[in-house]
Amino acid sequence: MSYDTLKKIMHTVTDLGQAAAVLGWDQETYMPDGAVIGRSEQLATLSSLIHTFMTNDAAKAAVAAVKPQLATMPERERRVAEMFIRDHDRAVQLPAELVEEQSRVASLAQDAWKRAKDASDFSIFAPLLQRTVELKRQEVSYLGACAHPYDLLLDQYEPGLTVDVITPIFDRLRVGTTALLAKIQPNLAQANDDVLHRSYDTSTQLDVAREIVQALGFDMHIGRVDLSAHPFCTSFGATDVRLTTRIRENDLRSCLFGLIHEAGHGMYEQGIGEDLARTPSAQGASMGIHESQSLFWENVIARSEAFWTWAFPRLRAAFPTQLADQTAESFFKAINKMAPSMNRVESDELTYNLHIILRFEIERDLVAGVIEVADIPRIWNEKMQASLGITPPNDAEGCLQDVHWSFGGIGYFPSYTLGKLYAAMEWNALKVAMPDVTEQIARGNFAPIRAWLRENIHQYGRTELPTEIIKRITGRELTEVDFLDYVGARAARVYGF
Question: Which listed residue (262, 269, 298, 305) is catalytic?
Answer without folding.
Answer: 262
